[in-house]
Design brief:
By secondary structure, the chain is of the alpha+beta class. It folds into three domains: about 5-210, Thiolase/Chalcone synthase (Peroxisomal Thiolase, Chain A, domain 1, 3-Layer(aba) Sandwich), CATH 3.40.47.10; about 215-220 and about 265-380, Peroxisomal Thiolase, Chain A, domain 1, CATH 3.40.47.10; about 230-260, no CATH class. It has twelve helices and 15 strands. The chain has helices at about 25, 40-45, 65-75, 105-110, 130-140, 170-175, 185-190, 250-255, 265-285, 305-315, 330-335, 340-350, and strands at about 5-10, 20, 50, 90, 120, 145-155, 195-200, 210-220, 230, 235, 240-245, 260-265, 295-300, 360-365, 370-380. The strands form four sheets. The protein has a nine-stranded mixed sheet, sandwiched between helices. Helix 4 links the parallel strand 4 (about 90) and strand 5 (about 120).
């Protein structure tokens, strides 16, 4: 089977960066009042800026498919006609512009420069971007195609505007005592960001510039044993089951914020780090890789709140990776969901820190119903 390489990376972040003091100018004030928990949550997540595909009036400046298409076009900025050689387009998101048609088809529709290609649309949450990559990886491994584009994009900001939320729950005292409680509906407003990242995937490494050989991609789901933790378009019942938005009246959907993203914060605190690091340890053992062999560790975090917890748990599991080997851009771009790891890889390459032969470990957790993807890359 041929080797598979990431031969080019790109990203696109819409409009200008929004710093912490400007957030509510874009998202608005719930019930006309400034958030009482915003400063506290920002202190914990340590995000300094993010991007929105809208202006201060909430007017849309880019659709999700346009954000994705722009990132993909950026792959071919030096030779726009090369996009005609792409045989597969694999596009992921957790925030499509519509339920139907699929997100991938809408992105393809925004790329008239391409031919009539194979299109796939992995859905889900943060792991969907890696599922998109894995599909292309298998397609090239099996020699179905020789050149593919994968992309992950999000347009989450508009869904965080004040008019999409019911009255904010104010529990400042509890939050001060136990910061994990800040991960209610309100916490998402201060971390989520819009943007996209894209990879060109080929069966041979680039003749110019850095290529990343994909050594393996391992994905694991715990949905068979764990309840939903992050959810949208449904409500979580006391017994842990979910009730679809289709079972609610239009009035209930509005009054109960059924279409808002929600998080079971208790379950998140109990499971996300533990399951993730346990899975990482088992994956490295299965693949015969020692943590000491890792030169760059890129882990997708929704918040810096989890950084020390991940580090401590990795030491407990016997897979320590020194902090100087960690690379993240969360503070500069915010949490861009499925696109975060793509933009992180793009930024790492642009940093010019990479040396031939170095190993890069990607770690992507998804709290929706607890799934994880790990990927090992070798710099070529």
């Amino acid at each position: 089977m041929p080797e598979v390489y990431i031969t080019r990376t790109s990203s696109f972040l819409p409009n200008n960066p929004i710093d912490n003091d400007e957030i509510e100018e874009y998202l608005g004030f719930i019930n006309g009042a400034a958030s009482r928990t915003r400063a506290l949550i920002l202190r914990n997540n340590k995000i300094k800026q993010r991007y929105y595909a809208m202006d201060k009036n909430g007017k849309l400046t880019h659709t999700n498919s346009e954000i994705a298409a722009t990132a993909i076009k950026n792959l071919f900025s030096a030779n726009p006609d090369e996009i005609k050689e792409v045989e597969l387009l694999s596009c992921a998101t957790s925030s499509p512009d519509q339920i139907m048609p699929s997100h991938g088809m809408m992105v393809h529709g925004s790329l008239p420069e391409t031919g009539n290609v194979d299109v796939t649309s992995p859905s889900g949450n943060c792991c969907s971007g890696m599922h998109s990559l894995k599909y292309a990886y298998y397609a090239i491994k099996s020699e179905e195609v020789s050149k593919a584009v994968t992309c992950a994009s999000e347009r989450l900001g508009q869904g965080m505007r004040h008019d999409k939320f019911e009255e904010e729950i104010q529990r400042l005292v509890e939050v001060e005592e136990k910061p994990i409680l800040a991960f209610e509906k309100d916490f998402l407003r201060w971390m989520l960001s819009d943007g996209a990242g894209s990879f060109l995937i080929e069966n041979k490494k680039s003749e110019t510039g850095v290529s990343l050989r994909i050594d393996w991609i391992e994905s694991v789901s715990f949905a068979n044993q764990e309840e939903a933790c992050m959810y949208q378009g449904c409500e979580k019942m006391e017994d842990g089951t979910t009730k679809s938005f289709k079972e609610y009246t239009p009035e209930e959907i509005i009054n109960q914020s059924i279409l808002s993203i929600k998080q079971d914060v208790k379950l998140l605190g109990e499971k996300i780090v533990k399951l993730g690091t346990d899975t990482c340890a088992k994956t490295l053992e299965k693949k015969g890789v020692k943590s000491s062999e890792i030169d760059h560790f890129l882990t997708h975090m929704s918040s810096y709140f989890f950084e020390d917890k991940i580090d401590a748990r990795m030491h407990e599991k016997g897979i320590p990776i020194p902090k100087e080997k960690w690379f993240t851009n969360l503070d500069k771009i915010g949490n861009v969901g499925a696109a975060s790891i793509y933009i992180m890889v793009d930024d790492l390459i642009k940093s010019k820190k990479l040396k031939v032969g170095e190993k890069i470990l990607l770690s992507i957790p998804e709290s929706a119903r607890f799934s994880y993807v790990y990927c090992l890359l070798t710099v070529c």
